[in-house]
Write a structure and sequence with these properties.
single chain, about 325 residues, mainly beta, 1 helix, 29 strands, about 50% strand
Length: about 325
């Protein structure tokens, strides 16, 4: 069944109900729709999605970053197209050592497929969820996976250290936390400045740097965030009282949002790398991911939950 996302509007369209300065972006699976966008006297063309049969809008053809795509048929590599796991999977991430970790469907737990092809069960408890929102391991050469279910009141993230054949667990950070050990950068959603729960609050901190949004008496609500893996930038999803949802990309050194989009659907996942966002939506019982280049507005829509690989895959 075809699943259609609605338009995603850049910031200059989001603030007014007037006719947009740039026409909306529309797409549908199994069909190629024509959209004409004007930007500096250039036309954006619509093409066929290489990954999942959706449509794309672009000023020039771009090559997608490496992706892992999860869905009912399993986990496949967006680079080679090879199926890496045949079981139905909710989400998968690279383990940084050439293998992958996947959250299976129907509460079957988390499994680890090593670079050599060995498979082992990590967690059987169906209440644990794979949370891929970290950008660098806390120690060189150590593989980290964050687990937890905030919906069940779990306000901490359990980090799993995979070292050789051993598995180590420790509970060290608030749930839904990104960290970049390179710059000691930590991004947390749902935790206030004092460390107490604050629903809808985003805090990004590093030595000499602090940024917050939706905290304390602010009326906006932050639902998720993702750190850039190499730069001091954060992307986050924000709901405002009028019901509009925005995605913003903020330069943490200045606090200025360089890119902001308004859209109708509610994301279930957000990922960030280079100049790309991966924004996943649940539609008609399935998942669609829009992979969007924020500088050019080029996008491709993929059937399944696609996340940036963030590490080598040698399987």
């Amino acid at each position: 069944m075809a699943r259609d996302l609605q338009e995603i509007r850049p910031l200059n369209q989001a603030a007014s109900g007037d006719a947009p300065a740039r026409p909306p972006l529309w797409f549908g699976f199994g069909a190629v729709l024509l959209a004409v966008l004007t930007l500096a006297a250039s036309f954006f063309l619509v093409g066929e999605d290489r990954e999942g049969g959706g449509t794309t809008t672009t000023a020039s053809v771009s090559v997608l970053p490496a992706l892992l795509v999860s869905g009912p048929d399993g986990v496949r590599s967006g680079v080679t197209g090879n199926m890496l796991i045949d079981d139905c999977a909710v989400k998968a991430i690279a383990d940084r050592l050439g293998g992958i970790v996947a959250e299976l469907c129907d509460g079957e737990g988390l499994v680890h497929l090593t670079a050599s092809g060995n498979r082992r069960q990590l967690v059987f408890d169906p209440f644990y969820r794979l949370d891929a929102h970290y950008e660098q391991p806390p120690q060189p050469g150590v593989v980290v996976i964050a687990l937890g279910d905030p919906g069940l009141g779990d306000t901490t993230a359990t980090f799993v250290y995979l070292t050789g054949s051993e598995t180590h667990f420790s509970v060290i950070l608030p749930s839904y936390t990104d960290l970049d050990q390179r710059n000691q950068l930590v991004s947390s959603v749902g935790i206030g400045a004092t460390g107490d729960p604050d629903d809808g609050c985003l805090r990004v901190e590093a030595p000499g740097l602090a940024y917050q949004q939706g905290c304390g008496s602010e009326t906006s609500t932050i639902t998720m965030s993702a750190l850039h893996p190499f730069e001091d930038r954060v992307a986050f999803v924000e709901r405002v009282p009028a019901g509009t949802t925005f995605i913003s990309v903020v330069d943490l050194t200045t606090g200025v949002a360089g890119t902001r989009f308004a859209f109708e659907e509610t994301p279930i996942e957000l990922d960030f790398t280079d100049d790309w966002l991966a924004i996943a939506f649940e539609l008609d019982g399935g998942v669609v991911t829009r992979v969007l280049q924020i500088d050019t507005y080029y996008f491709e829509d993929i059937d399944g939950l696609a996340m940036f690989q963030h590490g080598p895959i040698t399987l």
